[in-house]
Amino acid sequence: MAIKSSVAGHSPHAEYRRESSKRRAQGWREETVSRAVFDWLHTDLNPAVQSIRAARSQEAVIELYNVYNQSVPLGVRTSVDAGAIRRSLVSAAKDDELCAAGSLAVLGWIKSDAASKLARPAASWMLSGWSSAVYLGAERQAGAEAAQALEQEGDMDLRSLAARLGASPRTLQRQIAEEGLTVTELRRSCRQTVALRLMQAGGNSLGQIASLAGFADQAHMARGFKASCGLTPGQIAKLIAV
């Protein structure tokens, strides 16, 4: 799910409302939503979340959060201005208390993540497909092993990746499909992870980052990031460098 989330794009607000109704019927309350959000963010690889992890200053984190909320189609937009949290109706008839609790939980996680960075080296701030798999106890799955190879050694086509892992292309494709993924999704997620690391490290242009991460070109990278999180590589690189 962490890898799927990293490339799936933003879910429509109507879907959030449906899920909220289901959870409410199951007895969920605001504190239940908060715990679920924190659990989800422990492994989420979406570039929007990863860029918040990578940002070096509280100001950049808040700016990324606000830019993200302005860049994707939301029914209710949440923004932070001078420490005040505001929720504005866009296409929703009214706010939903469980959806609101989810947004507030994300902001709580952002504050917690920012505080924890002080004791950790910058290279450890972002997650990877491999580290998420280890956290979930899924490091022996084919998708986890493939993610580790792609993140450490660079992008590969299916045939090369299968050879690297000692499997036939068909077997690897089947194993990854059984885990709910496709090889295309896995490669795209890993390219984004590598690109984000390079943005955080600095020293390369966006064109160089696109090439090093395995994208066809800078435009290919931009389309991928925009589809995944509503943000462009330029927006992310500018803010995580602050």
UniProtKB/TrEMBL annotation:
HTH araC/xylS-type domain: residues covered: 140-239
Family matches, as Gene3D superfamilies: Homeodomain-like
Keywords: DNA-binding, Transcription, Transcription regulation
Alphabetical list of InterPro entries matching this protein: Homeodomain-like_sf (IPR009057), HTH_AraC (IPR018060)
Stored Pfam families: HTH_18 (PF12833)
SMART domains per UniProt: HTH_ARAC
Record region (Disordered): 1-27
PANTHER family registered for this protein in UniProt: HTH-TYPE TRANSCRIPTIONAL REGULATOR GADX
Record protein name field: Helix-turn-helix transcriptional regulator
Native organism taxonomy: Bacteria, Pseudomonadati, Pseudomonadota, Betaproteobacteria, Burkholderiales
